[in-house]
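During the first year of the project, the team set up a workflow for recording each protein of interest as an amino acid sequence followed immediately by a discrete structure-token representation. This format lets reviewers and collaborators read both layers of information side by side without switching files. As required by the reporting guidelines, we include two representative entries from the current panel. The first entry is reproduced here exactly as it appears in our internal archive.
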Amino acid sequence: MKDITEIQGFWSPTMDMEKSYSGILKMDGGEIDLELLGCEDFPPGKFIIHGLTSKGKKITLYNCYPFSRSRSTPGFPTATVSATHYFEGDHLFKTDFNFSLVEFKVTFLDIWLDVGGFKSFDKIENPYSVSLTYELPETIQLFKNDLIEISIIFNYYAPSFKPTHECNIRQECLIQIKHKQTFNLEELWTYINVIKSFFTLAYFSEVNIENVMLVKDEISLNLKYLNRNPSELDTKRHRRHFLFEYNEIKTSLATVFEKWFNICDQLEPVISLLLEVFKEGSKMNENYFLNIMYGIESFHRRLRSNAKRPQVEFDQIIKDILESSPTGHQEWLKEKLAFANEPSLKERLEILFSEVSPSILSHLFPQHEKLIIQAKNTRNYFTHYSSSLKKKALDGKELYHLSERLKLLLLVLLLKETGFDDIQTSKIVINSSHFLFNHIIVE
């Protein structure tokens, strides 16, 4: 069952609360919908709605658009408006979406970190006595440059007075982004997507960003947005549920995250495809396979040489060919040869597999030469639908296993690109394989 939140209040599509309408806001993990009574006209394009709830809270709905309208006689006209963002705490106008600080939760971050502030716990000689000491853990810095600082911070909640019957101390960890000036919503999501993609890699599954709190001019605003329902995510209860955990990379975390931060822009399509693959989970179809293949090809094209010969040498070859060809065929021939200097899919895969350590090759890809041919034939069949390739293309369980192995190839390449050496990468992949992808281990 989805946890749906309903909020009653008055809402103004013109941001003038003197001209507001009664309505109910409904929110769940994937939708922010407002049903308005008596409202028929809306501003053109995307607009902002200001609201005042029955409990007196100021709400701003951002990126709003009419979703449906209805009218009955007798009765009132009603309209449903959808929004992409919900801000609780103030009324924001178009020029107000600039913030100096954001804090939010990443699902299961406390388990991934495994960092606690409980320094001692003793049952003293008297069996009826307990001694407990708690200290807030130190902030963990992930990234810092001239504009922003990204850290993992800790808070705790404890009784503010001496308890009589019960004492509860609860620790939480948050991601904090501080900006020396301000960042807008677009920049905010750039930062958040970098963080989300890093933890998706570490978790070996999709993560959620939750409980987002923004600070503007010393005013705190709670932010809700279109998001996955937590029940749809893989549950993480043990360190073995992660590809790698904090304690494995503790001493190099800042270096690894900085490299990830710096390559994310260049590899944005590759990382987006990886996130999409994790969203799909174990759903097997040709798009799942093709997304992984596109990610691998794009990775090679962006970070490795995309030319088999030096460009000057290739240009001379083209010139010689064209000069020796009939004039009427030269334009057609020039077009056909335009991409002849690029590596083929098979060559790209061979280059990338050559970068994988022997220990990982023997553990997960012992027949990688055969896998390369299977990947090439299957990709070409699904892309071009050549009848001659149909018998060579994989399907069903074989296609699923091929896709899973290629997904791991992409993960290994991303780990190496982020600063993990062969020894670290081999340790992470081999230790995790029995828990995360034992269905494709080759004993």
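The second entry, processed by the same pipeline in the following quarter, appears below.
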Amino acid sequence: MKKINLPVLFFSQAELGVDLSNNPLVKEADVIHLHWINFGFLSLNSIQKLIATGKPIIITLHDMWTFTGGCHYSKDCTNYLRACGNCLPYLKHPHETDLSRKGWNKKAEVFGHKNLTIVPCSEWLASKARQSSLLKNKKVVSVPNPIDVSVFKPEDKTVARKFFNLNPDKKYILFAAMKVSDERKGFAFFKSGLELLAKQHSNDLQDTELLIFGLYDDQDFAGIPFKINSLGRLSDISTIVKAYSAASVFVIPSLEDNLPNTVMEALACGTPVVGFNTGGIPEMIEHRKTGYVADYKSSEDLAAGIYWTIFQAPYETLVAQSRQKAVTDYSEVSVVEKYFRLYQEAKGN
């Protein structure tokens, strides 16, 4: 299946945005809660005007952008711990007073506001925010994204597989082919892991196939020794739920990620997950309880995790524990309670 090439944006200056400070809803609000604001929605000047209203501000972080000079993920760079500048990972001509330093300086001005609460979606991101030079003196509280567990829930695997014309007696490794070209998504390690898996356990894997949703180039999967079942690009939620339910295991080989929705969705559907020990992923996957947390960038351990989950683990126990993890930690009821307490605290109640 041929994929559509979409731009991958790693660095945002936030120079363009809408001024909402005079919006009637903003004027009536007791608390202003910001989520994703990049790519033309709110500029740093827009945020500064909202802060100038004097109302309590809560900012939910979905990546590292709020406390860096402009990047959404810093890779191995730790300049954000001091003051950004000399941005080697992303800028073509890095130097001490480059765009990242200018962005850092502007954020230092904007986020000097005292009545500001920072809410990362994962404890991993929260720890980064607490260490950062921009947010280290702010209140930082980790609250995950919610998921509707009444929608994302387990369906009978036999029924789900028949829906996609799959063999109900086979085992399926599910992979979401989103931005395969993005190095952060770790596709190279996934591909290498599958090759190792087939080499080490060829006899056991005769009835194991790949299940892929999303758009991709056929050449990306060239040489992989598994039959590939492509579900295409899925947008209907009920069909997405069936895809997770049809799988034996969901694999996410990301090298840098916050709190991936795909992991949450898979767990809610009772599908164990295998992923690397990076970002917020090990907070979601409880090792050998709801899946397998593989050593970072180890194709060998990723392969071992896939094999363990499918062939060695107490599988039905994994399924039940995966579902329970999603209900306990990520249900809308659980997340709403946490935010309600934050709103009350922000207002001083």
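For the second entry, the following points were noted during internal review. Residues 277 and 328 are 22 Å apart (CA to CA). The chain has two domains: 24-145+333-347, 157-330. Both points are flagged for discussion at the upcoming steering committee meeting.
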